[in-house]
Amino acid sequence: MKAVFMSCNQSMFDSVLNMMKEMDIKGFTGWEELIGAGSRDGEPHLGDHAWPAMNSALISVMEDKKAEEFLARLKQMDEQSPEQGMRAFAWDVTQMI
Length: 97
Hints:
- This protein is an alpha+beta fold.
- Helix content is 31%, strand content 29%.
- The radius of gyration is 14 Å and the shape is globular.
C-alpha cells in the first residue's frame, strides 16, 4: 500500500478529483485552501495581495500498482501546465486501522 500526497494550484484540483473518479480511487482527505512555495521554481501561492494564488492538496492510500498509475497521470497533468506547480509524493503504508 502507498499513501500518495498531492499539492497543486486550486485551479487543477477538480481535474485531479475527476481523474481519481475515473481511476476508481475513492478514499481521500483533501484540503482546499493551502499556501505554499516551490523548492525549485514558480511563484509562491500565499493567498495575499502580492501572491494571491492558493493551493489545494489531498492524501489517499491505495494499492501500489494504482499509486504508480496515479503518479504517472499526475506527472502528465503537471507537464501540460508546469506553471501551476503540482507536486506529488508517495510513502509506504506499513499499517492501517
